[in-house]
Every structure is written in structure tokens, then in C-alpha cells.
Specification:
365 residues; BirA Bifunctional Protein, domain 2; 2 domains; 7-stranded mixed β-sheet; two-stranded antiparallel sheet; 9 strands; elongated
């Protein structure tokens, strides 16, 4: 009794059963979509009903057991149902998008007729601007720019500059030695670049070097890291007169004041002989000690002069170290702190403002 009943029920009605199952899946999908509140829920329904491992895919695998005529009938119904189901999913995605934009329009109203704000444009930092100006000024006087490493060897940072291991001037400078890198130090000045350049080039030499240097100084006008400009000219018959002329011309142009004057005071630096401290008339009070609006000039402390650089004639020992003949060649060198020059030029009260990256300060320049 069981076997004939089963055969009578299954074989003749299988195509009809599959069509009913397809319609059931379609109805179930539509009902589920109506309850979906967000795109993630719609995506989950789409995978469940139309994915590679969905009930619909399993149903389609049964087509292989049908006759060609039954396949045509059931396949047509299946394709139509699948198109309807995919269209319903797409419509639900679109409806949710419309609802989302409607909510945005309601809660975050935007007047699209109002012009937008242009993107902010940056500019070069004040220190970089100053270094560019220095390069232009010295370029007009025939100087080129030389560069070198910031992590320097003891040989170039000290020995080649007439500062052997037992020299007392090292006590102020040899503070940032590099761990696990024998006899290397963060350069204490840009002078090693001059030594390297002279070794690699024959005179005449006319260069400036600019960049970061590192010492243990730290106060309102000094930082453990600071920027320095150094100049070097080597040739036959170079004298202090050349140094004074070049340096005075530079100061007059960088401070935009033709009345700037300079004076030299004897000092000591191991790599020059004779060595000089260079003063210039105060750019704020123009050497008077008094400001135009009345009151004492705080920059020069009413003296009318500012100590601005160290300079001198290149020491014969330094020339010998790089293979030059000190009997035939002479030269001058000078060094200036860029950060302090910027503070004077732009009346910046504290050096830390140059490194804090405060846009309220940076935008002024």
C-alpha cells in the first residue's frame, strides 16, 4: 500500500511542487524585505534567498531530474521568480537610501547654493623662508650652497677643525655622541661641511652651508637643536677686508637696512686665526639705543649694538688638514645662528615659537 501511494504522489506532481516552492520562497523573501530596516539586513536576506547556498539554489539543482518539457516549464517560472526577487532586493536598497537621504535632509539641512570654503593652502615655514632668502643674497655674491651629514664623524667635526681630543673647546660641544656608532656625533656646527668641501674641491672656494646643529644650550634664545649658516671663502690674497665687505652686505640685505654697520672684536675660535666676534648696529633702534616711539630698546639693551656672529681668518692648520698650502692661500669663515637672526628680523620673543607648529604664529609669516 505504501509504495504505490508514494509513486502516485511524487512523480506526477514534482514540477508542480517545485513551482509552488518557488512562489513560496518569493513570498517569504518579499515579507522579509518589508521588515529589513538597514542595508545590512537586506544583504543578509539576499544571501539567504538568492546566494550560492540558498534554498532557491538547492531547488534549482532539482531541475536535472525533470524531463525536457518539465525543465522548460519550471525553468521559466524560476527565472521569472528570480528576476522578481532581485528587483525586489534592489528596490529595497533604493528605498532605504531614499529614507536615509530624507532623514539627512530633515536633520542636516544643507543649502547647496551657498559657495563652499576653499581648501586652506600652506606655505613654507619661517625658518625655510629665511634660509631661502640667505641663499638668494649670497648667490648674488657668487656663493654656492654646500651640504653634508648631520651625523658626523669625530674626524670632521673636531680633528679637521683644529680641535684634537684634548682640546678644551670640546667641553662645550661634544655632548650628543651616537650610541653603537663609534666616534660619531650629532654635528655641533656646520663647519664639517666646509672641511669636506675643501677636501673634495680645489680653490677658489666660495660657499655657504646651512642646516641643523646640536648642542646642549637651552634658554630663551638657545635650543639643543638650532639652525646655522656658515660662510667660507678661500683663495689667494683673501683678507679681513673681504670678510667685512661680504658680511656687512649680507646684514644690510637680510635686515633690509642700508644703514647697518659692523664692528669686529677680537675673540677665540680654534678654527680661525685671528678670531672675531662680529657686532652690527641694532636693526630695531638703528644703533641709537632708543626706539622711534620712545623708550629703551630692549633688544640691544640701549647699547645700539648686537653680537651677531663669530668669524675670522681660516686657521693655517685647518688649511693644512685639507691639503691646502697656507703659505699661498688664505680665507675667511663666519657662523651665524639662523634662529636668532629670525627672532631679530621678525621680533619673535621666544625661540620655542619657531618649533611649536602653532598655526596662529605660522600664519603670520
Amino acid at each position: 500500500m505504501d509504495s504505490p501511494s508514494k509513486a502516485c504522489y511524487t512523480a506526477p506532481t514534482k514540477p508542480l511542487f517545485m513551482q509552488e516552492k518557488i512562489q513560496t520562497l518569493k513570498t517569504s523573501l518579499l515579507a522579509a524585505l518589508n521588515q529589513a530596516k538597514n542595508p545590512d539586513a537586506v544583504r543578509q536576506i539576499e544571501v539567504e534567498y538568492l546566494g550560492r547556498k540558498s534554498a532557491f539554489a538547492d531547488l534549482m539543482h532539482g531541475l536535472k531530474d525533470l524531463t525536457p518539457e518539465e525543465k522548460a516549464t519550471v525553468g521559466k517560472a524560476a527565472n521569472q521568480a528570480k528576476q522578481d526577487m532581485e528587483a525586489a532586493v534592489a528596490d529595497r536598497y533604493a528605498a532605504l537610501d531614499r529614507d536615509r537621504y530624507a532623514a539627512l535632509d530633515r536633520d542636516q539641512w544643507l543649502d547647496t547654493s551657498v559657495p563652499g570654503l576653499p581648501p586652506e593652502q600652506g606655505h613654507r615655514h619661517l625658518i625655510t623662508q629665511f634660509m631661502d632668502d640667505v641663499e638668494v643674497i649670497f648667490g648674488r655674491m657668487g656663493f654656492s650652497v654646500a651640504d653634508g651629514p648631520e651625523v658626523e664623524t669625530e674626524h670632521y667635526n673636531f680633528n679637521q677643525l683644529n680641535m684634537p681630543a684634548d682640546h678644551p673647546s670640546r667641553d662645550m660641544q661634544d655632548t650628543f655622541w651616537i650610541k653603537n656608532l663609534a666616534r660619531h656625533v650629532l654635528r655641533t656646527q656646520t663647519s664639517p661641511v666646509q672641511a669636506r668641501h675643501m677636501e673634495a674641491n680645489k680653490p677658489p672656494i666660495r660657499i655657504i652651508t646651512m642646516g641643523k646643529t646640536y648642542r646642549k644650550d637651552s634658554d630663551a634664545t638657545h635650543s639643543p637643536m638650532f639652525h646655522q649658516i656658515e660662510g667660507l671663502m678661500v683663495d689667494e690674497t683673501i683678507s679681513m677686508a673681504h670678510l667685512k665687505a661680504v658680511f656687512t652686505a649680507f646684514l644690510q640685505q637680510i635686515f633690509e637696512d642700508d644703514s647697518i654697520r659692523t664692528r669686529f672684536r677680537v675673540s677665540y675660535f680654534p678654527f680661525v686665526e685671528p678670531g672675531m666676534e662680529v657686532d652690527c648696529t641694532c636693526p630695531w633702534c638703528r644703533g641709537t639705543g632708543m626706539l622711534a616711539a620712545g623708550g629703551i630698546c630692549r633688544l640691544c639693551k640701549q647699547s645700539g649694538w648686537l653680537e651677531i656672529a663669530g668669524a675670522g681668518m681660516v686657521h693655517p692648520k685647518v688649511l693644512e688638514n685639507v691639503g691646502y698650502d697656507p703659505q699661498r692661500l688664505t680665507g675667511f669663515a663666519f657662523g651665524i645662528g639662523i634662529d636668532r637672526m629670525i627672532m631679530i628680523r621678525h621680533r619673535v620673543p621666544h625661540m620655542r615659537l619657531l618649533f611649536e607648529n602653532d598655526l596662529r604664529f605660522n600664519r603670520q609669516f
